[in-house]
Amino acid sequence: MEIILWCLRGEVKGLQEDVRSWLSWVQLTFQLDMRPHTIEFAVNNKQPNGELKTTRPNGDCETIARFSSDEGFAAVMSSFMMNVFDLQPISSRKNNDVGGSTVIHGWSALSGALYFGGEHKSLLGDVLMSGLPGRMLQLYVGMPWASTLIQSVTAKKEIDQQAAYLAREHTSLMTLEEKALVRVSTHLEQARSDLVKITDKRVSVSTLDELMDKVRTLTKQVLDSEHIAAKALTEMTALRSSSDGVRILAL
């Protein structure tokens, strides 16, 4: 059974490594829309090398795609199965310290709902995270706009997570900028005070130039800090606006 699942999924699910090492050639024939299809490949060093083909009504064989690696086999079966079953990938959000990331669940995850065997921890499929079983149920029972709804929910979560991340970063940035601004302003005032106090004509030109350069550098640092803070605030405002738009669309 695990060999059959390997063929139909394009990815090994529970096939033991020692069993896989014994294999040298695999062939699986199945029918879709009353047309025979065949997956046939040799196994060299546990790597599949073969093709997916179909038999035309006139009896001729047609190669649909070839593969020569685990990644290639998975890509071939994913593209073929998602197309013939008219399925759309399911997206979900995974939270992390940098605003989260989008995870795309394709044929490997969706195929889990088509096979019931062994010990199952979820109603549909093998992936428990991100509410995937419930989303797969919506997709398979044909709920109207299920795919669009899933994408909209994922997009809203992405914006919310990014907004929360930027809010934390903005708060941290503003704290650092305030401290830096105070420090730079103190140095700037000291430099200006030094310039005012210079009345001794014996002060060298190089000393004056050095103080002027210091004033210019510190002034630039203050302006840069204010620019960064303003940019962060603009990004926060844009994200909040986008989040409101997606929330209205989802409703």
Notes on the protein architecture:
With 251 residues, the chain is of the alpha+beta class. The protein has two domains: 1-86, 3-Layer(aba) Sandwich (Rossmann fold), CATH 3.40.50.300; 153-250. Helix content is 56%, strand content 18%. It has seven helices and six strands, in the order H-H-E-E-E-E-H-E-E-H-H-H-H. It has helices spanning 2-9, 17-22, 70-84, 107-110, 132-140, 146-197, 205-250; strands at residues 25-32, 35-44, 47-55, 61-67, 90-94, 101-105. The strands form two sheets. Strands 1-2-3-4 form a four-stranded antiparallel sheet, with helices on one face. It has a two-stranded antiparallel ribbon with strand order 5-6. A hairpin with a 2-residue loop joins strand 2 and strand 3 (47-55). Helix 6 (146-197) packs antiparallel against helix 7. The two termini are 44 Å apart. Mean pLDDT is 76; it is low at 246-251.
Topology:
Layout: H1 2-9, H2 17-22, E1 25-32, E2 35-44, E3 47-55, E4 61-67, H3 70-84, E5 90-94, E6 101-105, H4 107-110, H5 132-140, H6 146-197, H7 205-250
Antiparallel strand pairs: 1-2, 2-3, 3-4, 5-6
Helix pairs in contact: 6-7
- Kindly report the spatial arrangement of strands forming the biggest sheet: 1-2-3-4
Gap between N and C termini: 44 Å
Q: Oligomeric status of the shown chains?
A: single chain
Q: How would you spell out the order of helices and strands? A: HHEEEEHEEHHHH
Number of helices: 7
Average pLDDT reading: 76
Helix content: 55-70%
